[in-house]
User: What shape does this take?
Amino acid sequence: MKRSIVICGYGNVAVELCKIISKNKNFILNQYDLELQVISVIGAQGQIFEEQGIDLELLVKCGKGSSALKEYAKVKGLNLHGKVIPKGDILVEATPTDLNSGEPGLSYSLEALNQGMDLVFASKGALVTNYKRILDKVKEKGVKLNYSGATAAALPTLDVGENCLSGSNLKSIKGILNGTTNYILSEMTLNKISFEEALEKAQRRGIAEKDPTLDISGFDSACKLVLIVNKVLNKTYDINDVHISGIDKLTNDDIRIAYENGQTIKLIAEASIFDEEISMKVGPVKVLNGKIMASVNGTNKCIIYETDEMGEIFCAGGASDPIGAGAAVLKDIINMYK
Assistant: This one.
């Protein structure tokens, strides 16, 4: 089975996806009878398009972003095309997250849906701001939608909830869904440094963005929680349905007092389920040190599903980086056609 892929956005996650597809193409073909061919990559300044497939090995050598697309086009003697979605089988949406408009991912995804393409999201913006609109169009066109790469990179948050708990009644979903904030809190707790020092250390190591607002404000965790709840429980919530507080106001005294009382502060995203009513919140929580969440440190993430029939199901770990997110996108593509 051959499937053609159009990628929107050529940042770190898209680059890693291309690397993995290039490296593992023979394994994917032999294991899943699936031949994946990237025919287009759209960046901020134009698009490269090759109907017979882009040379991914060459593309990843060109770097990332629009400069890489320009360099590839120069080497191959191609012209950069306009930012119009060509007809393919799958759109991978990996543009930067915009929690105000959802653009440019929203326009790209709707254009792809109008052409009957399946959708895989690595970016959260379009989904969080326009989930119902996208879902309605997916149902209208009879296509597939996957986005586990947008809900905590390699941590299989959706796989567990959608597949492993089928037939069970969920009571709650809670997790540490942001590796950056968990790293900062771990540094404050274990090394007794200030929030500012921990953030600066995370930025030096490439764990935190230059502008860490989405992470430390709790909004990234809230976005992931909304997407998990919507997929697992078949809902259409948006970011406005979550009560959100971040970690930027925490002090060393807060950390110390919690520690002295046998507790560790974690940024936890939680959905409590009461019949058809779901209450969602994100904020710092004092976790007893005997609880399993207290032991999740560094950039690690975790999720706990509490059910009536199966008890608590805990899953932790997974690469919290562009490679892990790229691998999750590839997993979503493969699972569409199993």
